């Protein structure tokens, strides 16, 4: 599945600079029942300066289902201090575990979407709504 993400809160050229370097990102979602989840995304690319990002997401994952269900997510750029958690988040399923709780991360209310921001992510968050 290819997910196209448009951001509104940063001008396209600034968001482009944050993501073009290719950092591994954390994508947070919240399903219609209100359950939050995180996934690690290592393969993504900026498509244009207008704010379109393509990311490869495995079909059937908890986060992918939540994203398809609600059309909302938050992209968080983690710092190197979160490297171990980022790897571990990518190696377990949201069907089995609350990743915020397990990895000691803090969900924070977003301004534009129901999906949570990750407090510990470098103060760089891109909120997306379909």
Descriptive overview:
The protein has 130 residues and is α+β, with helices and mostly antiparallel strands. The protein has a domain at 26-41 and 56-129: Pnp Oxidase, Chain A (Roll). It contains 4 helices and 9 strands, in the order E-H-E-E-E-E-H-E-H-H-E-E-E. The strands form 3 sheets. Strands 3-2-6-9 form a 4-stranded antiparallel beta sheet. Strands 1-5-4 form a 3-stranded antiparallel beta sheet, with helices on one face. The protein has a two-stranded antiparallel sheet with strand order 7-8. A hairpin with an 8-residue loop joins strand 7 (107-108) and strand 8. The protein is globular, with a radius of gyration of 13 Å. The two termini are 15 Å apart. Residues 1-8 have low confidence and may be disordered. Residues 21-122 form the Flavin reductase like domain. Its cofactor is FMN. This is Flavin reductase like domain-containing protein.
Give the SSE map.
Layout: E1 2-6, H1 12-20, E2 25-30, E3 36-41, E4 44-48, E5 52-56, H2 62-70, E6 72-76, H3 83-90, H4 99-102, E7 107-108, E8 117-118, E9 125-129
Antiparallel strand pairs: 1-5, 2-3, 2-6, 4-5, 6-9, 7-8
């Amino acid at each position: 599945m290819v997910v196209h993400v448009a951001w509104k809160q940063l001008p396209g050229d600034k968001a482009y600079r944050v993501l073009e370097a290719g950092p591994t990102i954390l994508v947070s979602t919240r399903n219609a029942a209100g359950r939050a989840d995180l996934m690690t995304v290592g393969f993504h690319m900026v498509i244009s300066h207008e704010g379109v990002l393509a990311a490869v997401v495995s079909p059937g994952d908890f986060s992918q289902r939540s994203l398809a269900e609600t059309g909302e997510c938050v992209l968080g750029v983690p710092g190197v201090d979160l490297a171990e958690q980022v790897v571990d988040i990518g190696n377990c399923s949201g069907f089995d575990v609350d990743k915020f709780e397990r990895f000691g991360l803090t969900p924070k209310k977003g301004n534009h979407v129901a999906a949570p921001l990750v407090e510990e992510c470098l103060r760089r968050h891109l909120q997306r709504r379909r």
